[in-house]
């Protein structure tokens, strides 16, 4: 009989977005005549940009010809894609070695899998509220988690407490779910803290493309000293509409070196390389070709148009909440709007209320942590028409 990983018993029954899908499907089964508006999971609605589609076609054609066919690719990713990413970072003044860059199928997998590089007994700091994958992936391997509180008092941007030691620190900026974004000084405080405590920061930059203020850092490596203490995860899902196409990347700088229990140095880059070459066969060639096209000048212009579209939706949501005097965060450097549940509801009550009364699906804040229990998240990734319609329904419900 196999001995099972009983840490799974400590997880909630289902993953947040699976639970939302389940509750929504159950409601729609009984009310199939109603028109539902989904502003829950952060899934995009704009199609892939023309450059990416063209690259997918070309890639498919290459795969169909013996002379250009490709079998297994490098586990770390094709050089062309890694070079395109390095050039993208260079625009923000960040120099990366190609060996620091690992192409993957998205930030969710890598932020989940990264736990494998660390041993037991680490002090793991995770903000509350935050993207649930960080907590769940640590629970799955039996790790204890220490929460740092994001709340209205600190604008959902917690800073380190010098009296609290940490070995591993998760940061997501712009934050999912609150939309809050650290500025340069605040990120520097985290980097300095991590270096003093010899900790590693796991920095999720999946929403960096939404940052519209050039003074805000899009990568943690814009902060001096970060290469010595941080791994960065990023994704094309939200930037370029790759939620269904799947491509992300993780930066593990060669400078990231820590002593093992005997004092001998181990390189996180070498460990991640070993992990990926053992357990991952690389993102498909055609998808990587499309990813490289996204970083071309034309690709970036096309992505910017889609980002502007979503930002316009975010403004529609923000304007409505402001008019209704519902306090909210985010929506400027982020596709997410995080608001206080009206009428004293908790977040799952608010979910059911919005579903039943106006058929708008959002995400209950409790799914992102204890501190989210009275908050609710809406995404601006819907279509403009549906976003406007959802907000008209809000106005009639909460006026
Ligand atoms: C979200 O809605 O929080 C995201 O879409 C989840 C994800 O990126 O996996």
UniProtKB/TrEMBL annotation:
SUPFAM superfamilies: PLP-dependent transferases. InterPro entries: Aminotransferase_I/II_large, DapL/ALD1, PyrdxlP-dep_Trfase, PyrdxlP-dep_Trfase_major, PyrdxlP-dep_Trfase_small. It comes from the Bacteria. The keyword ATP-binding does not apply. Pyridoxal 5'-phosphate binds at residues 72, 107-108, 131, 176, 207, 235-237, 246, 281. Residues 36-391 form the Aminotransferase class I/classII large domain. The keyword Nuclease does not apply. GO terms for molecular function: L,L-diaminopimelate aminotransferase activity; pyridoxal phosphate binding. It catalyses: (2S,6S)-2,6-diaminopimelate + 2-oxoglutarate = (S)-2,3,4,5-tetrahydrodipicolinate + L-glutamate + H2O + H(+). Involved in the synthesis of meso-diaminopimelate (m-DAP or DL-DAP), required for both lysine and peptidoglycan biosynthesis. Catalyzes the direct conversion of tetrahydrodipicolinate to LL-diaminopimelate. This is LL-diaminopimelate aminotransferase.
